[in-house]
Amino acid sequence: MAKFRFLNTPLTIKNLELKNRLVMPPMCQYQATDGMPNDWHYVHYVSCAVGGVGLMIVEMTNVAPNGRISPACLGLWNDEQRDAFKKIVDAVHARGGKIAIQIAHAGRKALGADDVVSASANGAYGGGVEADPRWGGYQEPRELSRAEIAQTVQAFQDSVRRAVEAGFDAIELHGAHGYLIHQFHAPKTNLRSDEYGENKFLFGEQVIAAAKAVMPSEMPLLVRISAQEYGENGYDAAYGCEIARRYAAAGADVIDVSGGGDGMPDAAHMPKIAAGYQVYLADAVKKATGLPVIAVGLLDDPAVADYVLGSAAADLVAVGRGLLRDPYWLLNAQYRQTAADAAPVQFVPDSYRVAFGV
User: Fold this and answer.
1) 44 is a catalytic site residue
2) For the segment 6-17, what is each residue's pLDDT rounded down to a tens digit?
């Protein structure tokens, strides 16, 4: 029986046909100028397409200049950025790959940008600026007004529309890791007294609805969540599953399951860091929602990734550091097998099959 048979199993979600279960998760490259993708991004994503990755998710791409993690992060707030992304999308498609893009706003975690905004100005920290030096000097945020919330939802929609126009195969909304959507649904950081405080899922639900309104009906919408926060007073996995259920009801088609919150994790609240240490969260969300899920968490060993898929804890596995080190991670995993174990390669272009009889 071939090794890595689960990794090499195709999967279809709505109109998205994936040749395998390997996902390259969104990983910031810090190489953009004024939000524009460039040759660095072209080489990065197209290399992974050549390497056979089933689905690439472009790094956190911001809906506004003040939403960036850094001034060197990508954006999709204008049409020039859209047109630059189309070159990458077309090249990935030409090499048999599928590509999504993560649309986001960093909120109070934005660095190097003016007018830093958040669900609430203070969160649970007793002040706008976290004194802990591990935070890296975040600027003091201010609370978004209702009018600004509406403008931000519109900015998400405009960016999603541009992503659709650029030809992306799926859209992911970033609702994890302490960024703006997360800041609204997390009790630790949303201390508002209005409807957005009473219903902490409202902002995320509005962003999902806005995104779906400009997406083709058969295009999948992925939502990334932190299914558990690992810091003091952070929410637990039960609350994380409720986030997933609410966003599934709002229209999410896939949940990309990670962990972590608005602050630094601490040992008292973290699971032991080991291969697959966050897979239990993906399993819980999958059972809570019935949706396809992406698992993360040190899945760089192909045997571990394949085992996770075989266990039915997740439908897709995200390999981050492994693909940064080696965009041909999957090809090399196949290559290192013995002849008796090797499965047929699934990602040889049709033109090569005809020319070389493979």
Assistant:
1) no
2) 999 999 999 999
